[in-house]
Design a protein that fits this description.
The chain has 18 helices and 17 strands. The protein is α/β, with parallel strands linked by helices. The N terminus is likely disordered. It is found in: Cell membrane.
């Protein structure tokens, strides 16, 4: 079975590569022809690059993004402007933006009242700007929620299976990667049984994320078992910017009263059932109570975008939950279509308002100048800023780019560590024993600007202390870096500078 799947996947990948190569060949052939038409075409494309370059410089994009495109148009004056237009102005992204905006507007009246935000602002005046910002973006502040933080994929998995067994009305799953193996097979078995019992089961996975892990017809196979499945943004062999906008969220919702999110995907390396890049360190959180509804609405929005079908969202709203839980919980989501960069803004708010410490774990550290400046300013202002990244990488080129950012941060007083046992995939922030966030947002360009992401902000919850304790345990298993460790040879340093220039494309 697996050999047949591999052959199907290989044939599909070869087909995609050939079609993309054919499109590029035809374009290059037109430009490189010596005919009069080709010369006029060449001149027209060069003029287009000049005009597009002016538009890029005057736009509102990040400076690093502007710089990359200007350099590309200088180096490739014929193709640079055309490539920018292909990436930036496409009907498919505009349609998706309008559709998602309508879904988000339909969700707002169901989020909950403003009482939670007002109560949180009174209790935490220093966090009021972040609370109000997220509420204005449509993300309510919830109380009456128990938060269980899990410092490993194994612990998430151990809690998830019994929670799925308790489902009575519906189970919603949204993941970047699904791969058959110990973790998915166990979950899949529960989903089949629950679907047979009349529970509504929906599965949404990203096509690019699962490109090499699932056969092309897997959604139809699940449908035959009574599991409603959609593939988000199916990959198509055309030059299209929409292919950059992947669904990187990880959400499980059970009856709208229990929800999970975090860095984990449904593949065996996330629970260390197989070894991949050493020990895999991840993290997740379970919300039991009112805040679970916030994650449920995020799933329903993406389901509506992927299925192009309308749901009566209020029909999925759970009844009142038993009172309980301490502190405030604010689930939030990020979309590349609205240009708002919510995930980045949450991180920046935490950094900028830290008084004593900010502790961060991230698998990648590929950020723009504004994030570097915020981290450096916090460290220079006496805040204890510590960041842990992996020592064992999953992508060599990305790891080399991450290391290109170490030196300016170390010089500013930020303390950097690499997780020695293996690959660190957890995405957590915790600050001042008061606020933390757990979710899917990496500190890289794709997560911050290109992907659909989600997270959970925690304020004065017991889980904040659990996140801090997990960071300290991870720190004990990590090696601190010094400036002496970050003095590469001249060729390596030049290569890293090129990688930093190309970072917005990674």
């Amino acid at each position: 079975m697996r050999k047949r799947w591999f052959r199907q996947i290989l044939r599909r990948r070869v087909f995609v590569i050939l079609l993309l190569a054919l499109q590029i060949y035809l374009l290059v052939g037109l430009i490189g022809d010596a005919s009069r038409l080709a010369r006029w075409t060449n001149a027209a494309f060069r003029l287009l690059s000049v005009l597009v370059g002016l538009r890029v410089v005057s736009g509102r994009d990040k400076p690093s993004y502007k710089l990359l495109w200007v350099v590309l148009m200088l180096v490739f004056p014929v193709f640079g402007g055309l490539l920018y237009l292909l990436v930036s102005f496409q009907r498919s992204t505009r349609w998706a933006d309008r559709r998602l905006s309508r879904l988000e507007q339909a969700s707002r009246p169901l989020q909950g009242g403003a009482e939670g935000c007002r109560a949180a602002c009174r209790a935490l005046p220093a966090r009021a700007p972040q609370l109000r910002y997220l509420e204005a973006r449509g993300f309510a502040v919830y109380q009456n929620t128990h938060c269980d933080y899990y410092p490993s994929g194994e612990e998430v998995f151990a809690a998830l299976l019994p929670a799925l067994e308790q489902a009575e009305k519906y189970i919603f799953l949204e993941f970047f990667i699904i791969q058959e193996g110990q973790i998915w097979d166990a979950i899949h078995g529960i989903l089949r049984r629950k679907a047979a019992q009349g529970v509504l089961v929906r599965v949404l996975y990203d096509d690019m994320g699962s490109f090499l892990t699932l056969p092309r017809d897997y959604a139809r196979r699940l449908a035959a078992e009574g599991i409603d499945c959609r593939v988000f943004n199916p990959f198509r062999p055309v030059l299209s910017s929409i292919q950059n906008n992947r669904d990187h969220r990880k959400i499980v919702s059970i009856d709208g009263r229990t929800a999970f999110t975090g860095g984990f995907n449904l593949a065996d390396e996330y629970i260390n059932a197989i070894e991949k890049h050493g020990h895999w360190k991840d993290a997740g959180i379970c919300l039991r109570g009112d805040a679970a509804w916030g994650l449920t609405l995020m799933f329903l929005q993406m389901w509506g975008l992927a299925s192009r079908a309308g749901d009566e969202l209020a029909a999925f709203a759970p009844g009142p939950a038993p009172a309980g839980g301490e502190g405030f919980v604010q689930p939030y989501a990020d979309s590349p279509l609205d240009k708002e960069n919510t995930g980045e803004h949450v991180y920046m708010q935490i950094i900028n308002r830290a008084r004593r410490y900010v502790y961060i774990t991230t698998p990648y550290l590929i950020v723009d100048d504004s994030m570097i400046s915020a981290l450096a300013l916090a460290a220079k202002s006496g805040v204890d800023v510590r960041i842990i990244t992996p020592h064992h990488w999953d992508k060599w080129i990305v790891h080399m780019t991450t290391r290109a950012y170490y030196r300016p941060l170390l010089e500013a007083g930020v303390r950097l560590y690499e997780y020695s046992p293996g690959f660190l995939h957890a995405k957590i922030f915790v600050s001042d024993d008061e606020v933390a966030t757990v979710g899917t947002v990496n500190l890289d360009y794709r997560s911050l600007y290109l992907h659909f992401e989600c997270g959970t902000a925690l304020y004065q919850c017991p889980a904040v202390a659990q996140v801090k304790a997990d960071f300290q345990r991870t720190l004990a298993a990590s090696q601190e870096l010094t400036l002496a460790d970050c003095r590469p040879s001249l060729p390596v340093r030049l290569f890293q500078e090129l990688l930093r220039l190309a970072a917005p494309l990674m």
